[in-house]
Amino acid sequence: MNDAIKQTIAFVKSKKAAARITEPLPVRIILTSLALLFVGLFLVVPLVSVFTMAFNKGMEVYFASLVEQDALSAIKLTLITAAIAVPLNLLFGLTASWAIAKFEFRGKYFLISLIDLPFAVSPVISGFIFVLLFGSHSLLSPWLEAHDIKILFAVPAIVLATVFVTFPFVARELIPVMAANGNEEEEVALTLGAGGWKTFFRVTLPGVKWGLLYGVILCNARAMGEFGAVSVVSGHIRGETATMPLHVEILYNEYNFTAAFAVASLLAMLAVVTLAAKKFVEWKSSGRFTPQLNTERRESGSSGVDL
Amino acid sequence: MSKKILFNFIAVFLIFLTISIGSSAGPKQSLLNVSYDPTRELYQDFNKSFAAYWHKKSGQTVTIRQSHGGSGKQARSVIDGLEADVVTLALAYDIDAIQAAGFIKPGWQKRLPHNSSPYTSTIVFLVRKGNPKKIRDWNDLVKPGVSVITPNPKTSGGARWNYLAAWGYALRKSGGNETKAKEFVKKLYKSVPVLDSGARGSLTTFIQREIGDVLLAWENEAYLAVKELGKDKFEIVTPSISILAEPPVTLVDTNADKHGARKIAEAYLKYLYTDEGQKIAAKHYYRPGNGAIAAQYSKLLTNVKLFTIDGVFGGWQRAQKKHFADGGVFDQIYTGE
Amino acid sequence: MNLSLKKQSILPGFFPSLGITLLYLSLIVLIPLSTIFLRSAALTFGRFMEIVTAPRVVASFALSFGASLVAAVTNVFIGVLLAWVLVRYKFPGKGLVDALVDLPFALPTAVGGIALTTLYAENGWIGRLLAPLGIIAVFNPLGIVIALIFIGFPFVVRTVQPVLLELDVEIEEAAASLGAGRVQTFVRVVFPSILPAVLTGFVLSFARALGEYGSVVFIAGNMPMKTEIVPLMIMTKLEQFDIPAATAIAFVMLVASFILLLLINFLQWKSGKNLVSG
Asked: Do B65 and A238 touch (CB under 8 A)?
């Protein structure tokens, strides 16, 4: 009985506190509607249209086009590519953001701009530079030829182009978050006698987990969806060097719209899968990721005000 | 994320790396045919037929690997090291570029009959059902209110044939007056609302966006589109005169020799000229070079007066330089020089 | 680049982490990109200028930079709005909306371009509604902006979102208890803290828009002088086997976007000075 009253009081109190740091209801409704309208016009409708086209010959055709030999090899190649590109860029992102966010040095913003560069480079160019680097008229070509190493128009070039295109994602997500967190917590940990690695894993990483997660999600999505750069270095050999986006193009060019959009829908579903992965990590981490030094930080995933 | 997860990532990465390196070795007896976009269906059938023929003839099992893409892009890939044994592209200009890079011996176009083009095609008009704008010939395209769909000849090799067909018609009609021809082509491209980057893009614009009154297309593409996308919605109009579009094929000497595949590659190309090969080409709405086979399909591939690129333009090198190079006639149409 | 440790920090690992960063950066980005510089260096200055000042090329530069700027500014508003709504409010389907934000990344750009063109063309689901209003959304610069908004806005959402999540609500509470209105609190308290992230999002979406090819070619119409973007010009040169010309245009684009990145990163540094490193 007593407990119930206490809970009610606590609830009312928290509601009041929440009201002070949020907007009036009409504003919330308007903002949310605007956001939903945009999402509707720019995301839901295109997505629905992709699925409409994918399913317009029925479930059977849809699934048949996914288990077809060339589609399977495209899916496999895409997974391999992402499985190499994402961890590489994850490790790079962590190292780079540590150096950039935690230390002051001259040329820092020059370095950040260099890291941003792959975003600004047209996919056409991103692929083309690897052609210039490894193509038959490049300086490296005689050596590669002599050792019978195939990079261009084979898996290595596809991976390289993907790594290039997704290069900045993790680093770029981590730098602002890590910088915003400041150095105090790490310094305290170090003064208390924790080692460098321990401090990194126990203090720094938990503090940037959301940035890290978003970075990895973006990086992975882009790694699997990249078309332009990969198209230039792949050679388009059916069943061999075609990734999923390239396979979509092949099918589209064969008037096989249904199959093309079926494979595309698979890529679109990535978003849903990554969401599930994100929720899973949130759920898994809810207990483990609250380190002693960091208990003040809000558990973020479940925040929000009811409309 | 804990240390463990990080290490797991690394482990997965290493495993995939080994798999990808391990699986890069292909099957032994194989042939890579690097082709342009609209030949997919043709070579799907043809490769099956050839593999059966070769197996019967030599006992060898051959795997034919296919690569398709825009003709110019494919040529560039071969130049950059895509190890094609044979190339089957949309225009001789692209193969000339591979030759210039040293992969193909000079004089390649004389190695096989019909300028090394076992099958040919031409440029026709695709119009909406009932032909509401009454488009019968080239001069109907520049009538006021007619909107024409064709890809950008700068990015699409196939679309260069469209442009040259229009030029050739105007040149012939004006009795060889180049100024008049230029005026005609200029007027034609002024009525193009969208220049897609490739033939497939233009087809989608015309069929699915329902933009334009007439699509300039290769004959084989037009027939395939009608068959796949709507018999009851479109009609094909063959103009009084058009260009003979010659998509050539040849052996990439250095690659075929490197792979020890010269013999089989040569047989592959020769097979295109056999009755069987010619029939497959005709089935996919290409015009077979063999007169007897062509006669069997004359109902579909109607007789039309055709001029050639060599006859009217003096070959691809000259046509390219004059019309499509920077500052050429096509640029002048838009920059107003 | 003159790198020197300016501020003492007791944190370890500066030199190793910076070293690895520079090494990886060089291998993956700098060495491959240097090929562009090497190739265009083969041109004489006169020829180089001739290529990059040709009327069609100049028109494409103006279009690419203009459309990217419009799209990136739009994306700042859309992105902050979405991030705010996703972090601060609860509404049915929120999780789904959150997931959908990544769609433009996962979808191959060509599929995105085809889907958008299908929808916004005059006979499409959305274009049909716009046509009576006199708005033609495809095959003109507006179409390009639409495609660029589509591919760019997740950058703003995903850079602002984590900062909003980590943002301490207590400061806002304090502001509120001191009598600050909601708008005032946002402008004075929240906005300054998310500004660096907003700028990052802006840069990323702008930079990405500059180079985008796959989705734009479908919706742009590619009319010379009017709707040809720079990447299409590069493709055009490549199609003519004119590799020096292609690299010359790419070179100008690279330098221009790098200067922009540098400028905006510098602005960000100015605005977020007190945030970076304590």
From this structure: yes
Note whether B60 and B124 are same-domain residues: no
**Domain C43-271 CATH (choose: 2.30.110.10, 3.40.50.360, 1.10.3720.10, 3.40.50.10860):** 1.10.3720.10
What residues in C contact B194, CB-CB < 8 Å?
139, 221-223
For residue B306, the cross-strand partners are B242
Tens of pLDDT, residue by residue over C26-52, are: 999 999 999 988 888 888 999 999 999
Chain A contact probe: residue of C98, C129, C165, C264 with most A CBs at under 10 A:
C165
Say yes or no for a CB contact (<8 Å) between B79 and A252. Answer: no
ipTM of the complex: 0.82
Distance CA(A90)–CA(A160), nearest Å, equals 15
**Residue B12 maps to a domain:** no
Neighbours of B8 (CB within 10 A): 13
Put simply, whether B83 touches A (Cβ < 8 Å) is: yes
Q: Do B158 and B97 lie in a common domain?
A: no
Q: Residue ranges per domain, chain C? A: 43-271
B235 is in which domain, residue-wise?
A: 120-245+304-335
Among the listed residues C116, C278, C266, the one whose alpha carbon sits nearest the alpha carbon of residue C200:
C266
CATH code of B67's domain:
3.40.190.10
Within 8 A of A27 by CB-CB distance, chain C residues are: 182
Set of chain A residues whose Cβ sits within 8 Å of the Cβ of B3? 201
For residues A209 and A213, give the distance between their C-alpha atoms in angstroms, rounded to a whole number.
Answer: 6
Residue B250 makes CB contacts below 8 A (sequence gap 6+) with: B86, B87, B95, B104, B108, B109, B111, B112, B116, B269
pLDDT tens for residues A37-77?
A: 999 999 999 989 889 989 988 889 899 989 999 999 999 99
User: Contact at 8 Å (CB) between B144 and B226?
Assistant: no
Per-residue b/e over B287-322, b at no fewer than 16 CB within 10 Å?
bbbbeebbeebeeebeebebbebbebbeebeebbee
Query: Chain B contact for A129, CB < 8 A?
Result: no
Specify whether B138 is located in the same domain as B234: yes
Would you say residue A49 lies in a domain?
A: no
Residues 6+ apart with CB under 8 A from A300: A210, C165, C166
Give the mean pLDDT of A271-287: 67
Estimate the crossing angle of helix B3-22 against helix A69-102, to 10 degrees: 140
Q: What is the structure's pLDDT at B4? A: 55
